[in-house]
Amino acid sequence: MRQILINIARLGVKELRTLTHELMLVLLIIGSFSAAIYSAATATSQELNNAPIGIVDLDQSTLTRKIVSAFYGPMFKRPDHLTSTEADRGLDAGRYTFVIEFPPGFERDFKRGQTPAVEVNIDATRMTQAFIGAGYIQNIIQGEVKDFLRSAQPDQISPIELVTRVKFNPNLTSTWFGAVMELINNITMLSIILTGAALIREREHGTLEHLLVMPITPAEIVLSKIWSMAVVVLGAAWLSLELVLKGALGVPITGSITLFMLGALLHLMATTSIGIFLGTVSRSMPQFGLLIILVIIPLEMLSGGITPRESMPELIQNLMLAAPTTHFVSLAQAILFRGADFDTVWLRFLALMLIAGIFFGASLALFRRRIASA
Question: Model pTM?
Answer without folding.
Answer: 0.79
